[in-house]
Amino acid sequence: PMITFIRPDGGQRDLSVPEGTSLMQGATTQGLDGIVAECGGNAMCATCHVYVDEAWTERLPPLFEDEDALLEGTAAERRPTSRLSCQVIATADLDGLVVRLPDRQV
Ligand code: FES
Q1: Which tens digit of pLDDT belongs to each residue from 22-46?
Q2: What separation, in Å, do the N-terminal and C-terminal C-alpha atoms of the chain show?
Q3: Which of 23, 44, 63 is the best mutation target for the ligand 1 pocket, counting ligand atoms within 8 Å of the beta carbon and taking the most?
Q4: Rounded Cα–Cα distance for residues 52 and 44 (Å)
Q5: In the chain, N or C terminus with fewer CB closer than 10 Å?
Q6: What DSSP string describes 9-32?
Q7: Residues near ligand 1 with C-beta < 6 Å?
Q8: Which atom of ligand 1 is closest in space to residue 84's alpha carbon?
Q9: Any idea what the Cα angle at residue 57 is, between residues 52 and 70, rounded to 5°?
Q10: Could you give the 3-state DSSP secondary structure of residue 68?
Q11: Top-level CATH class of 2-100?
Q12: Minimal CA–CA distance to 46: which of 67, 31, 16, 60?
């Protein structure tokens, strides 16, 4: 699926993220700035924080328990649309998903 990442300055990048891969992996392997992913996708660092576009929040699987707890410790403010991008797995029905990057991850 094609995922759109929007930077805080409004610039955007559309990346093709392979199915079964997390948004974090898809973004970092393609050189997207703005996702740090210190823990490498193990739901331990919260430096892969993104804001999911409101039109899409209902279409994602619910937060994992660990994810919910970690989101309490994000560097940028937590919002109702906050997710950890390492816990959102690309699937065909997420084609066109839009996520926004926070202004900082650490
Ligand atoms: Fe560490 Fe997502 S990469 S929590």
Answers
A1: 999 999 999 999 999 999 999 999 9
A2: 28
A3: 44
A4: 20
A5: C
A6: TS-EEEEE--TTSBHHHHHHHTT-
A7: 24, 37-39, 41, 43-48, 70, 84, 86
A8: 2
A9: 65
A10: helix
A11: alpha beta
A12: 67
Task: Give the separation between CA 96 and CA 14, rounded to whole angstroms.
Answer: 9
Q: Which atom of ligand 1 is nearest to the CA of 48?
A: 2
Single-letter code of the amino acid located at 73: G
Residue ranges of domains in the chain: 2-100
CA of 55 to the centre of ligand 1 (A): 24
Mean of the per-residue pLDDT values of the chain: 97
> Tokens for 77?
């403010």
Please state the ipTM of this predicted complex.
0.99
